[in-house]
Design brief:
The complex is a heterodimer of chains A (552) and B (308).
Chain A lengths: L1 H9 L2 H14 L14 E6 L14 H10 L4 E3 L5 E3 L2 E6 L4 E6 L13 H12 L43 E5 L2 E5 L7 H4 L10 H5 L1 H6 L7 E7 L3 E6 L13 E6 L3 H9 L5 E2 L10 H5 L3 E13 L9 H13 L3 H7 L5 E3 L25 H14 L7 E6 L5 H15 L3 E6 L2 H9 L6 E7 L6 H8 L13 H11 L4 H18 L2 E13 L3 E2 L15 E2 L2
Parallel strand pairs in A: 1-10, 14-15, 14-16
Antiparallel strand pairs in A: 2-3, 4-5, 5-7, 6-7, 8-9, 9-10, 11-17, 12-16, 12-17, 13-17, 18-19
Helix pairs in contact in A: 10-12, 15-16, 16-17
Chain B lengths: L1 H9 L1 H18 L16 H10 L6 H13 L12 H36 L4 H15 L2 H15 L13 H31 L2 H8 L4 H30 L1 H7 L5 H11 L2 H29 L7
Helix pairs in contact in B: 2-13, 5-6, 5-8, 5-10, 5-13, 6-8, 7-8, 8-10, 8-11, 9-10, 10-13, 11-12, 12-13
Classes of the chains: A alpha+beta (552), B mainly alpha (308).
Amino acid sequence: MIPRKRLVGLGAFALATSLVLTACGGGGGEEPPAEGESTGIVSVGNGEPQNPIIPTMTNEVFGAKVVTNMFSGLVYYDAEGVVHNEVAESIESEDNQNWTITLQDGWEFTDGTPVTAQSFVDAWNYGAYGPNAQNLSYFFEPIEGFADVQIPVDDAGEPTGEDPAAEEMTGLEVVSETEFTVTLTQPESDFPIRLGYSAFFPLPESFFEDPEAFGEDPIGNGPYVMESWEHNSVIQLRPNESYPGERTPQNGGIDLVAYTDEDSAYNDLLDGNLDIVTNVPASAFGTFEDELGDRAVNQPAAVIQVINVPEYVEAFQGEAGVLRRQAISMAINREQITETVFSGSRTPATDFTSPVINGWSEDVEGNEVLEYNPEEAKRLWDEAEGIEPFGDQPILIASNADSDHQSWIDPTCNGLRDTLGVQCEFDAYPTFDEFLDARDNEEIQSLFRGGWQADYPAMGNFLGPIYGTGAGSNDMGYSSEEFDAKLDEAAGESDPDAAIELYKEAQTILFQDMPGIPLWYNNATGGWSEAVENVVFGWDSDPILYQVTKSE
Amino acid sequence: MLWYLGRRLLQVIPVFLGATLLLYALVFLRPGDPVAGLGGERGLPEAVQDQIRAQFHLDQPFIVQYLYYLKGIFTFDLGNTFTGRPVAEVVAEALPITFQLALMALVFESVLGIAFGLFAGIRKGKLFDSTVLVFSLLLIALPTFVTGLVLQIVVGVNLDWLPVTAGRDPDFYSLLMPAVVLATTSFAQILRLTRTSVIENLTADFVRTASAKGLPRVRVVGRHVLRNSLIPVVTFIGVDLGNLMTGSIVTEGIFNINGVGGTLFEAISRGESVTIVTLSTVIVLVYIVANLLVDLLYAVLDPRIRYA
């Protein structure tokens, strides 16, 4: 009797403990770091890449970690987002429109073939060619002749199914093995900065023979080679012994481990089974900096969150509309929401770009509308009411509900309700693509959420693609001649500092029109185990993996 | 018997067709445009989207899409997922591990559930019985993600007794904790079911007769009470195999197991109809087979049941 009672007292946990006894033998964490060479293999929490590993296909973070470590472009970004030459010897232009690019000697793909001017030109032409349907094809849009390599469309905008007029862009010309020229359709002073993005990486000849096989077993020219790819499980990258560049691997390799759940990756990190996590789960926002100490990172990223105002909504048009936009902005307590809802893992916005971008500043003229100021907000709102009443309708903030947006939309709405005395609700769409559908078909009747992550570290990347007239991600339908002119002026400006000033002036125009209401910058949150050192998270929120050291 | 078996197996065909059609229709009716979501906030270039739609026949009417799917089934070529991997490969990769997990959970819950239930039933009203009852109520009340995360942090991170996550190529040992977590709710249910059934049978006439004719207690309980009490339990276990396979989404996420749950979840959020329908259909088939096995087991447990 007695032993049985005792068993029950432990209840079903008896089950767990009996399993545990056998566990002691097999467990075993990481060895403590010993003095000596850094030859250990660094394991990094990641996920299954969403596309084949082809640079012009890779538009998401899981694949990006593979591509940036396997390929070397003309330039690379350091942690601060500053551009350094990698394969390029020089990138020069007199007028920001006609560029001459020369390559260094001695670069090879890991299959032994040389990296030549042709490797770049062929890769770019492949990426731009419409029928190849490359996700990043729009990056080649500024190059002369891009339109001719797209599938022709009829008057209604439907594809005709015919072949494009040309197979190659006229703006690319190979001069010699190590030199080629690029002609753009208009001056783009930040063109060299863009060249570090994966869309512009070179491809070996073997790629063009069988792109599909290449996507499974890619060959690059970067610091690492792919040793194996077990889908949904792990991608093993090992140092490329013949790599001649500046990003020489300081470790024995990288294992990109796929997780579907951020919590489990984080728990693995705490247990020492994983060296680096690049995303701290929301459940640990409040505690991870205590738990990891100086092994935690929480710094602004090149990501900004906004509430966008569609131009077709009448209540937000005209003079009254602008007053309302400003009133809403001033009624949002950004400090409080970033602290309480996001536990400090967001940083209140002070402009339309991001603090990690060169040229960011806290004092763009006109940015006082981003400060929490309930009295002024109420005054502006009442002034707008005097011009044209808003009526009984509620303000709706639309977003997808399949990731956690309600947690900040609700307090934002509360702020609007308390300050402005209006109704405000979360307009939830079940999935992300339903939200996009409604957005693109102009079915959203009020405000909607927007987010932007920079592809390359330049201010222009935060402004042109979103607020330029007719730009790809200008979902508001915003159009301002003044703003467009300012952007063109900045794009043609060779002096970087002068260009930054122009971009600031462009933002002042945005603050007057408020096509979007900046909320906050996302922070890069992450951490690493005691087994690794020299972990630095770059401007793009990803750790710079080649310089991480780990002893075996 | 064989005739019966054959007839039951033939029923699989209409069920299969019906299930795929229904599932395909459900996925088709899901609002939104899966291709639009592929490019994140920015979206893919329009030309790229059009080509993806054409490649996956998403620009075709529902019935054409469904026929393409059937054609894929019968030619053993289901095509690729949006990420460019063969659907068949993805499904074949996800199934074995989930099946192993579900089977381990099934063994845990049935062996322990029946054992605890039997003893609780025999000692009805005693301390053992009351403790077990309260405890099982607690287990039923606790959602899987709570037990999962708590066990993971306590047993995995703090005590370091079992691996925190299953990792790649999970073996029996690293699947222990997930299987226990997965089994908890059903374990408590089987326990309660067995207990009630045992208590009922203990007062049955045939048990009194067996005791009266002087059979040893062990034999009475083992041969008469337990065997008769198992019929409702076996029914439950049969249905539960399917539940365990679909219900492992949460558990698989917590322990980073690359199985049906995660694959299905990802396919649903991406609107990848072929993967969703194929995986769900396999689970439907598991239900059918499990139920068939249960029906056959009835005959073993209760000799009065005969199939012809």
